[in-house]
Amino acid sequence: MGTQSDVVSMHSGKGEHLEMDERAQLCFAQALDDAALPDDPRLRAALKAYFRWATQAMSAYPESRQKVPAGLVLGRWSWDGPV
Known about the structure:
- The protein has a domain at 18-66.
- Helix 2 (18-34) packs antiparallel against helix 3 (41-58).
- The two termini are 23 Å apart.
- The protein has a two-stranded antiparallel sheet.
- It is globular.
- With 83 residues, it is mostly helical.
- It has three helices and two strands; from the N terminus they run H-H-H-E-E.
């Protein structure tokens, strides 16, 4: 099992891809519908906010995998955002 640094590293060094990130977020929102999750605005908002946050975390080192520091901590999330 990998670390947070390993996961971020896998997504790093590929340059910026803002359009792809935005499309991934749209696909995630559609997947919530496809999975027939409850149409609860608070639940949907929290899940979408988490995915947006995670997408940004994964794209923090667009130019180099070598710049990803060791020991990154997996963030914790609550209904109100990052903890």
